[in-house]
Amino acid sequence: MQRRLPRLLTYSLAACAPALGLVIAVAPGASAAAHTSSYARALAAARATLRHLSVGEHATNHAIFSHTTRVKALTQVQSTNWSGFADTSTTFGTITGNWAEPSVSCSGKTTLAVFWVGIDGFTSGTVEQDGTLAECSGGRAFYFSWWEMFPTNAIQVVGSSVQPGDSISASVVRSGTSYALQVTDSSHPANSFTTTQSCSGCANSSAEWIAEAPSGSGGVLPLANFHSWTLSGATVNSGVISSFPDDEITMVDNAGRVKAQPGPLNGSGNGFSVTWVRST
Fold first, then answer.
1. Distance between CA atoms of 49 and 87, rounded to whole angstroms?
2. How far is it, in rounded angstroms, from Cα 9 to Cα 16?
3. What is the pTM of this model?
4. Is 272:266 a contact under the CB 8 Å cutoff?
């Protein structure tokens, strides 16, 4: 945020010699340029952090805890980095979801929260996924759109001008061994994209709608305080989340304390909310 000159100093400058009028005229532009340069450096640093992230790591490194509870054909499970819903018990080819980008609250430490839809990952070692990401870096919040074919490539950041409240739609559509990954930011279209990737060994055995704490070289990273993430209009194959056996996933730490808690599916079976509880 651009700082304003103290009122007393402003008045003193205005009362000085006419030559200072040029300084007064130039200073705001110089201040704006410095602010822009500072933001650009901070954004570059935030983007650099993302190159080392793993998103979608679940089945291989962060297995579901063994104790599960059956409630009305719903399996309630826990994960150290995922919160949301996953469908299983068939082969999946299409998944969609919509949300308004949450606003994150930042402190001094680096925290992240990723919101995505995808095929695979819950019962396999690959994930075909896309969505948005919020990062707190240096006390500032940055928001991105991205995609990833885990673990083939690192997270691919596309847009860096996503803003809280942006209307986001995400989808993954499979045709044979090709996957069309699409994110649409109808509020800031520069963040929108479509890319087609291939995977001959993907299982297509699950579909997910997830809020995630991504992982780095040292394990799961602190989860940014996103307050609440609400997914709506979700479809999968020719149905909705509740059309298939679904798993409600609660994110917990290694001691079993809740970090992010999903609410129940809505009455249409195509949406839910996840509430942030703690970072670590």
1. 31
2. 11
3. 0.80
4. yes
Please name every residue paired with 248 in a beta bridge, in sequence order, or none if there are none: 76, 85
What sign does the dihedral 116-118-121-123 (CA atoms) show? Answer: positive
The pair of three-digit structure tokens given for residue 50, joined into one six-digit string: 């993302």
The residue assigned the tokens 């928001």 is 143
Q: Considering the chain, what is the average pLDDT of its residues? A: 83
Sequence letter at residue 222: P
Structure-token pair, residue 197: 């990737």
55-276 carries CATH number 3.90.1720.10: no
pLDDT digits (tens, 9 = 90+) for 229-247: 999 999 999 999 999 999 9
- Report which of 83, 81, 86 is spatially closest to residue 216, judged by C-alpha positions: 81
Residue 73's Cβ-count burial label (10 Å; 0-12, 13-18, 19+) is exposed
CA 223 to chain CA centroid, nearest Å: 11
59: left (phi over 0), alpha (psi -120 to 50) or beta: alpha
Distances (CA, A) of 98 to 75, 101, 123: 23, 9, 24
CA angle 10, 15, 18 (to 5 degrees): 110
The SS3 call for residue 254 is coil
For the stretch 265-278, pLDDT in tens is: 999 999 999 999 99
Reading the block at residue 159, the tokens are 């847009």
